[in-house]
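Fold it.
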Amino acid sequence: MFEAHNLYAEHKDLIHDIAYDFYDQRMATCSNGDEPENWHLSASWKGHSGSVWKVTWAHPEFGQELATCSFDRTAAVWEEIVGEASGPGERGIRYWVRRTNLDDSRTSV
């Protein structure tokens, strides 16, 4: 049975897109606020200089990767990096790194 949950996003404006990963365990959102957000352990980062229109997860065979496209006429591919845990039973620090950037000088993508 479907069960609805409220999610209070930190976006300051309209949410343009929501994407779930392959296993439906993590969710990514994007908005006019020019930063994608990942809702597993809530990560958010400044990635574009304009509104982000679309976000999508890569297939797991490629690792934990996201692609975003923006009004700033760029598309970007992001990879999640997991650092080493500082102690037993702890999780490593997770952060996102831009792996590639695709530019189009004519119009938003």
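Strands lie at 15-20, 27-31, 37-38, 43-44, 52-57, 65-70, 74-82, 94-103.
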